[in-house]
Amino acid sequence: MIKKFFAYILLTIIFFSIAISAEKTFALKDLNYSNDVLLQGISSVFTFYIPVSDYDNLYDNYLNIGYRYTEISGDNTIISVYANDLPISTFTIPEKKGMLKIPIPKSLVRANDFLKIELLIKLDYNRCDLVNVGMENLWFLISNDSSITLRFDGKKALNSIQSFFSELNGYENYNFVYEIENTEKLNVFTAVSEYIGSNSKGLRKSVSLSEGDLTDTETGNIHASEGETLELTDSGKKMLIGVDSSKVFSTDYIKFMNSATATVDNVFPEEQKTGIIGLGSAGLSDQPLEVVYNSQMLIDLPLGLFSGVPSDAFINLHLSSFDQIEEEKIYMSVFFNGFLIGKTELKNHAIDEIFSYRIPEGYFSAFNSLKIVFRQYNAPCKSSYVKIYGDSNITFSGNSEIGDITISQFPSFTYGKTLYLISDSSTGTASMLLKLSYLKGLSDILGEFGKVVTVEEFFKDTDMLKSYDSIIGILAPEDMGKFDGSLLLGNKITIMNADSGKKIFESDFNDEIIMARAVKYKAKPAFLLTYTKPELLESTSIDNLLEFKRVPGNLAILKDNRAISFNLGREIITVISSSASPEEDFWYRYRFIIVLCLVVIAIILLVFSYRKTSAGR
Amino acid sequence: MKKLGEVLKEMNVVTEEQLREALEIQKKHGGRIGWILTTLGFVKRYDLFKGLSVHYGLKFATPDLQNLIPKIDVILLKKISRAEILEYQAIPYTAIGNKLIILNSYPKSERTTEFFKNRYSVEFVEEWVITDLDLLETSKKLYGESLMDDSVYGLFYRKPEESAYRVFSFPQFISIIAAIMVFGIVLYFIPNLTLQILLFSCQLLYLIMIGFKFALSIAGSIDEIVFETDNEGINSLKDEELPVYTVLIPVFKEPEVVGMLIDAIKKFDYPQSKLDIILLLEEVDDITLKAAKEAQPPANWRFLVVPKAAPQTKPKACNYGLFFARGKYLVIFDAEDIPEPDQLKKAYLAFQESDESYICFQGALNYFNRDQNLLTKLFTLEYSYWFDYMLPGLFSLKLPIPLGGTSNHFNVEKLRKIGGWDPFNTTEDADLGIRASAENYRVGIIRSTTYEEANSKVWNWIRQRSRWIKGYMQTTLVYNRHPLKMLRTLGLKRFLSFQLFIGGTPLIFLINPVLWGLFLIWIVFNPIFITELFTPLLLYISLFNFLIGNFLGIYMNMLGAFRRNYFKLIPISLLNPFYWLLHSFASYKALWQLLTRPHYWEKTVHGLSNQSNSSNGAESEKSNGGDNK
């Protein structure tokens, strides 16, 4: 009896142990690598990501790597494994083909996150000098059967505010629940949406708006609430954001909120803009760059970093180079937005040197790209290293006004602290506001929190504009002309060349059109958007809006999900059309009934007449 | 055998002096002495025919006619047609063995007796004399119903496709329904383009109409194109050679004009004894009949009472009169008309000098009361241009001519051949002109004017004009029932001319207020939807039509005034756009009536003129400085 009892207890423990502990294996082929991964060159890197579920207490995680590599490579072929950017193992793999099992420390794997695995392979190329081989013969192949196995004990991880907004995990779509239409709630939503955008660079996330709470478990619902509290509810699926707490979304503060609730009683002081921008804040790390043949580094520099176009700007690159062969030289070329701003021959073993190049003011645009290219000639099998330090910076003495802006530069030119202008607080406006603020966040760095005001409020105190860097406007057709006198937009749009009188574009009253204008309003870059039908504000998706990126002009029309653009001013184009007259409006509203009535009356009259005067006589 | 004159003298119905006077006229102008005496008013019709019976030694049957009519042998009637009775002026009464008795108002005609002998295979024909009016009344009693039926439905029975009895043919009905539906669909889906195409079509029609009328005016401005007859030609005509000329005068409730009418016709430069004047009276119109009887017109006048039957229209009455017409030629005058005295001779000469293709000659119409008010002035300008330029222009270019309402002189035989007038068409004259053209007959123009009374009251004018325009619409529909056949028959030039002149005229009047309305709205409110409708091309055409078209319209109206030396009317031409607005109003009324009361005859009230029409129109014209061309 006792034996039976213990046996029963044992079985129960085993059963529950099996039930609550589990393992999950991700093979590369499960991660859409349908073929083996072929790496070429002496030195190569392969990176992939594994989503980690919301279970805590992960243990005994390991990586299985199936591999094969070229016979040319010697026995000292080295593989280094990094997990979440931290090295976990480095060893030589003399066998040309085999399977490696590499444990991953538990501490590096976080729940509700992605696990980034990076494999650095360095072939043993000591024969390279003797044999004239090309890069294509220097290969390393990783089998797509390679996998990672995560084991966990079945205990759920703590839901945190951070996990809700996690860059790599979290939700693909954030749903903002708009229960009561008012600008305060829109302020909250705009800040959060900007934040999501800012944390979604390179990812496919989206924002949506609904008028009531959704029960969709896949959706991260966001509610604007009163007070200063951030609160995660509904098993981490729902976030309540206090009106006063929304300001934290302008900062990185949120990243540190590892709990499910937080009271924000002090707002971080806004970052003081100075005349120095560290490239570290733009994503530059101290990682050394291996230069074989040539290598390059790209750094994005949104205008928001500078709060305007910097004047007397200099880029100061702090770098060291090493492992150079005496007779070979490394040349460094620095490009800013495609313009060459400097070229330098690096000395052998240059240590802690600073190279400064001037960036002319005219080279700045709404979104800027810094490209540093290192080129090593005549040493195909040799590698050298260059390290650019994170304290490299751009200095400037002041800001000037941004030059001509185009639609395609949106959202980059709506940098910094943005004033959101709206004609109303309708659901449509709210929905579009979310999309635009998300896009703004996507292209900008987190800065100061913007503000949502109605057009009416704005014109009561236009001085408020002095506190903002840029404008995003979602305007009813009748409000558009208040900001850009050259436009009188309405239900029907006709665009003509003012010189020749030639009609370039004409819409019909039925056409569903979103029109956007990139313009400077009182010296502030502004993206103004209007529409022919209010319902378009909801139905136009972020992908639709990205069509604007394709067009070069400063006035763009989005019709049937295709954008066309015009250069108002430069091409001397006038937009002559306007809001529908009451008669036209009446006609387009009731035209089916009108036409039907006319036709029916005419036919009845004719039939009556025919029967009376012509038929059967 | 005693001479007729002697007989009448013995009967104490004529004096020696009257007989001598009649004989002198006979010697000078020819003609039969009996008719001369009668038309002079010396002898009554009854006495004439009684005298004739004595003269020929025949029985005078008129006193006993009411008893004889019921005894007329219907079997005999079946062997003779209605037309033959009217042609020979005789009715078979009864047959006794080898003898046939006929009631005859044209006794002792060998042609008549031979006809009856042959038709009834008898050896002897006995003639009983009755008056011509008795013969007419007897015919009406015997054939009244069929005469009426033929007057109304004759054309429809023979050529239903050429009658306006039916407004729409079935294919037309279906086509119009389909067109309305297609229009509705395209208007819904592409309203701007649809309206632009519609406007463009309207403007194009305008442009073509302007060009067409301008071309007609140029062609019509050449004097030589009309049949000009000089005094020498008219003087060379011998009265005894002139044929009998029937004058049809339809009247309705116009008792006041009968007396003036008799006086006017007495002034005709045509032998009275050769005038066959038929006053067409409606059965319901007692007052005019009474007035006519009291006026005691000469014996060459006949009162023909048209039995009551729908539709009560002028063409129906004319058809009825055509059955009884004795003349070789026939002309229609309205009761208030004042033709130039020598018009009949001019028409006769025109027929003589032209080839066989001519069925009709149209005289010009103009107004004696042109100075009465603004409306009559505008009406006069219009008519002057119409009859002095437009119709001559059409004639010159050998295009179909829509006839005017009166003063159209027909060859009776040819008129009967093409079926007379269409009683269901409210512009029967225009219709007849087109039908004649479709039958390959030609209509000529003579330079002789008939003066009518211009409508001086706006509403009366609108009634009259809406009837005319409705008739144009009917005519357009009738001759577009088989457009391809019509095209083959008329040829492209005449076909297009018909479409433009008959179909285009009412259409332009319907379009006019819409376009003017758009223009006014544009001027006052400048709404964007109008700006957008007018593409540059459309705008240029519209502007051309508006400026040049209206200018030409006014200028061409002035032309008529110039030709007739009505210089006082020239400034009035500038008011023509207002006059066109009246046309448009009448057009919409006409369109409504076409759909609801297509055969309704809007009677024009005459006698509204405060200017006496007893004075000769030509004199009236001369007093205005007109050259009376």
DSSP strand (E) fraction of chain A?
A: 35-45%
Side-by-side strand order of the widest sheet of chain B: 7-6-5-8-11-10-12-9
* Apparent shape of chain B: elongated
Separate helix tally of chain B: 26
Mean pLDDT of chain A equals 80
Integer average pLDDT of chain B: 85
Radius of gyration of chain A: 31 Å
Termini of chain B, distance in Å?
52 Å
Kindly, what is the distance between the CA atoms of the first and last residues of chain A, rounded to a whole number of angstroms?
A: 112 Å
Shape assignment of chain A = globular
Number of helices of chain A: 9
| SS class of chain B | alpha/beta
Provide a concise account of the structure shown.
Chain A is an alpha+beta fold and about 625 residues long. Chain A is built from nine helices and 38 strands.
Written account of the structure:
The complex is a heterodimer of chains A (617) and B (629). Chain A is α+β, with helices and mostly antiparallel strands and 617 residues long. Helices cover 18% and strands 36% of the residues of chain A. In chain A, α3 links the parallel β11 (173-177) and β12. The longest helix of chain A has 32 residues, at 582-613. Mean pLDDT of chain A is 80; it is low at 16-20. Chain B is of the alpha/beta class and 629 residues long. Chain B has 26 helices and twelve strands. Chain B has helices spanning 4-10, 16-29, 33-39, 45-56, 65-68, 74-77, 82-88, 110-120, 132-158, 170-189, 191-220, 231-235, 258-266, 286-295, 314-324, 343-353, 374-396, 412-417, 428-438, 458-478, 483-490, 492-525, 528-533, 536-563, 576-596, 617-623, and strands at residues 59-60, 90-96, 99-104, 124-129, 245-251, 275-282, 301-306, 329-332, 338-339, 358-367, 408-411, 442-452. In chain B, α9 packs across α15 (314-324), α11 (191-220) packs across α17 and α20 (458-478) packs across α25 (576-596). The longest helix of chain B has 34 residues, at 492-525. Residues 612-629 of chain B have low confidence and may be disordered. Classes of the chains: A alpha+beta (617), B alpha/beta (629). The interface between A and B is medium-sized, with 29 and 26 residues.
